[in-house]
Structures are given as structure tokens and as C-alpha cells.
Write a structure and sequence with these properties.
single chain, TIM Barrel, alpha/beta, Urease, subunit C, domain 1, about 20% strand, globular, eight-stranded mixed beta sheet
């Protein structure tokens, strides 16, 4: 890793596009200005102030956007040593550890995770940050530690990545603590109403705060295989709210276990309100199903029903190496691969959920290798989109606002086989 500043790019030559064609892509002012057949792009970049990159052998994609991260928790698994288990045990382990954290330690872990995700291709991240109220008795100073850490990281890394913060307010979090973190510059209101003793009351409380502040809402919603359903009530509550703000629901695991008629009714409510849905395969595949050793359920939302209904769907990496998920790389290609394996999506559908779908749910401008779109781009060595999702080559070039912000090249050496050991046809029998 180097300390070189971001480098403007004016032309990408010979890139393979998702449709299999090869093209030259011209960029100016952080926007894609032309996409022409390979070998015809020189004129588009004539006189432009920027680097020309040869992307022969690379697939050029819309850069991923991470719609649901927990940067304040990232990389804490080995520090905590939690028991392996379900959502409840993960919450308990995290709460105990959270009481010991400093602003500096949170910022250090979050910064390291953001930079790793950036190197893998993600140029925009929405992260939830816990309002650290404990049982509600914490001071404002204690409750805002995570927020202060992530606001500092957001400001520090602004030239490299777009970072959005969501206040994750638990059911025991006082309204005054939520207001305090919002006053520090948090961008949206979040929470987990399904964990409250009265889920609908907590939903109403959080929505009232968001309405009063005029902020977007992104709630953890119905993250269980059974139990309460709040997604339909959430959708109805925001149906007539201003559309200049985004409203989204993460996890929505319960939707995937509802009977078909009830599932379709809730999906219709979601579609009618244009509520964005964020599926989080790696964490929910890990957390759900511990009490079902036979026929263990997938722990995903109803992806096919949502997509068929025209709902805007995004997918994210969620937790990375913390009590809620001891593994994960924060790599959008890992998320896409899991959507193919566990969600039964095609590679193209899966990648769309971590890129264009995620950008839509986050309310970001359209991006990708097409004229007029923002130059938020990821080039990955490979032969096709399906090849890239399957292999997740580490050879990548990451472009944010028309500038190269990360580049990774892997060198592999394999020992040669002596000629005498080469495979030979077996001798005839008899």
C-alpha cells in the first residue's frame, strides 16, 4: 500500500463490459462521457487531463456500494472471544465489550475496515453506529463514543470513499441519546424495533424522531425466523412521506419464512411504499438456524418475490469479524457469490444487488460504465461477469469520482513439474 494521492483518469482502454463486449471508456469531471468499441477511444480523451489505463483482461463494473455495515463493531471478534451462537448471544457479548471501548479504538478498527473495503472496490458505505446507551443509564459522553469515532473517520477518508452514518438506537436507548448523536452529524435514523417488548411502539418512536428531524430511515427489521412482523407497518407508516429521503429495511429474515399468501401481502405493502430492502446473506446465514440442526433454514429474505414485485433490493456484507459474524471480508463479490449459492440468483442479478441496487436504495446517483453516469467503477481481472463473481480475483482497479483510489495486483508463482514426472498414457493391459 502506498500514500500516493488519487490519480485522475481520462480513458480506460480495452475493458470487457458486463454484456461481453470490449470498450474504451472516456471520463471527465468524475463522469463517464463516452463508451465506444475498443480501439476507438483515443479521440474522446484527447487533451484530457488524466491517466490512460489499459484494462485488457479486466471486466469493468459499477463500483459496489455497501448498504449496511457496522464499522464500529468490525474486527472485534478476536478481541471479544464471544461464544458462537444466535443473535441474542451475539448482542450480549457485544454489549459487554462495548462498555470498555474508547473513541480511538473504535476509529482504528473502522478505518482499517473502510480501507480494506475500498481496496476491494467499494466506494460508498452506509454504516450503522450503535448509540452506546447500555441499559439506558449511560451518560451522553458514553453514548456518543461510537458516533464521534465514525464522524472522525468519515471526515478523514472523505477524499477516498463516501461514508454515511445511521444511528442504531436500541429499544432501551433514550430519545435524548438519539438526538445527541444526530446533533453530531449522523445522516439517518435507525434501530431494531423487532427486539423491543412492544415492536410497533418502538417503530413509531423512531419514525417520529426521523420525521421531526427530516432524516432518512434505515431500520433493522424482523431479523428472526419467527416472531413479530413489523415490515408491513413500517411500509404503511412512510407511504406518504417526502420522497426526497430514502427509507429502507435491513435483514427482513421473517419475510422469507412467512406463508406464501402472507409474504405476498407484505411484499405488496413494501412495493406500494417504494421501501428499499437490504438483504445481508453472510451474517444471516450465520446467525439464523442454530436451533434447527435438521433442515436448517437459509435465514434470507424473500428475494425472488421482492424482485418479481419490482421492489428495490440491495445486498450488503453487514458484520465483519465481530460477535455477529466471525468471518467475512467486506467484499461485495463475496456477498454476490452467496446470493447465487443461497439466494438462487443469477450472477448478474447478484452483482446488481451489490452495485446498482445498492446505489438506488442508498439514494446515490447512477454510476457505472455508461455515458452520463458517475465514474464509480471497479475493474476486476476476469473473462466475464460470471467469472468475476465466481473467482473474485484480487487483481482490481478502483475508481472513485473519476480517480484511481486503489489498485491491487497479485503475483503467483507455482513450482514447475520435472519432465520425468509428467503425466503419461498408461501402458496397455495384457
Amino acid at each position: 500500500m502506498t500514500d500516493a494521492p488519487p490519480r485522475p483518469v481520462s480513458l480506460l482502454r480495452g475493458a470487457t463490459l458486463p454484456d461481453g463486449s470490449t470498450a474504451d471508456v472516456a471520463i471527465a469531471g468524475g463522469v463517464v462521457t463516452a463508451v465506444v468499441p475498443a480501439g476507438h477511444g483515443a479521440a474522446e480523451a484527447a487533451g484530457a487531463d488524466g491517466e490512460v489505463l489499459d484494462l485488457t483482461g479486466y471486466v469493468l463494473l459499477t463500483a459496489p456500494a455497501e448498504p449496511h455495515a457496522h464499522l464500529d463493531k468490525a474486527r472485534s471478534f478476536e478481541l471479544i472471544g464471544p461464544p458462537l451462537g444466535d443473535l441474542g448471544s451475539a448482542i450480549d457479548a457485544w454489549r459487554e465489550y462495548a462498555a470498555t471501548m474508547s473513541v480511538e479504538s473504535i476509529a482504528d478498527r473502522a478505518r482499517a475496515q473502510v480501507l480494506e473495503m475500498l481496496a476491494l472496490g467499494t466506494t460508498a458505505i452506509r454504516t450503522h453506529v450503535d448509540v452506546l446507551s447500555g441499559d439506558g443509564s449511560a451518560t451522553v459522553e458514553e453514548a456518543t463514543r461510537g458516533t464521534r469515532a465514525l464522524v472522525a473517520v468519515r471526515d478523514e477518508l472523505a477524499p477516498l470513499v463516501d461514508l454515511e452514518l445511521v444511528a442504531l438506537a436500541g429499544p432501551l436507548c433514550p430519545d435524548a441519546h438519539v438526538e445527541a448523536v444526530l446533533d453530531l452529524g449522523v445522516d439517518a435514523v435507525g434501530g431494531a424495533p423487532h427486539l423491543a417488548d412492544d415492536p410497533l411502539a418502538d417503530l413509531d418512536r423512531l419514525l417520529a424522531i426521523a420525521s421531526r428531524r427530516g432524516l432518512p430511515v434505515d431500520l433493522h427489521t424482523d431479523e428472526s425466523l419467527d416472531g413479530p412482523v413489523t415490515l408491513d407497518a413500517y411500509a404503511r407508516a412512510v407511504r406518504d412521506w417526502p420522497r426526497d429521503r430514502q427509507y429502507s429495511a435491513g435483514h427482513c429474515v421473517r419475510l422469507g419464512t412467512l406463508p406464501a399468501d402472507e409474504r405476498d401481502r407484505v411484499v405488496a405493502e413494501v412495493a406500494a411504499s417504494d421501501l428499499g430492502i437490504i438483504t445481508l446473506p453472510i451474517t444471516n446465514l450465520y446467525l439464523q438456524g442454530w436451533d434447527a440442526p435438521v433442515g436448517t433454514p437459509r435465514g434470507l429474505t424473500a428475494l425472488r418475490s421482492l424482485l418479481d414485485a419490482g421492489v428495490r433490493v440491495a445486498a450488503g456484507a453487514d458484520n465483519v469479524r465481530d460477535p455477529f459474524n466471525p468471518v467475512g471480508r467486506g467484499d461485495a463479490l463475496e456477498t454476490a457469490s452467496l446470493l447465487v449459492t443461497a439466494g438462487h440468483l443469477s450472477p448478474a442479478e447478484a452483482y446488481a444487488l451489490v452495485s446498482d441496487g445498492a446505489r438506488s436504495v442508498l439514494g446515490l446517483p447512477a454510476a457505472g460504465p455508461r455515458p452520463g453516469a458517475r465514474a464509480e467503477l471497479l475493474a476486476v481481472r476476469g473473462a466475464s461477469l460470471a467469472d468475476v463473481v465466481a473467482t473474485a480475483s484480487p487483481d482490481r482497479v478502483v475508481i472513485h469520482r473519476g480517480r484511481v483510489v486503489a489498485r491491487t495486483t497479485l503475483t503467483t508463482t507455482v513450482a514447475t513439474v520435472p519432465a520425468a514426472s509428467a503425466v503419461r498414457e498408461p501402458a496397455p493391459v495384457g
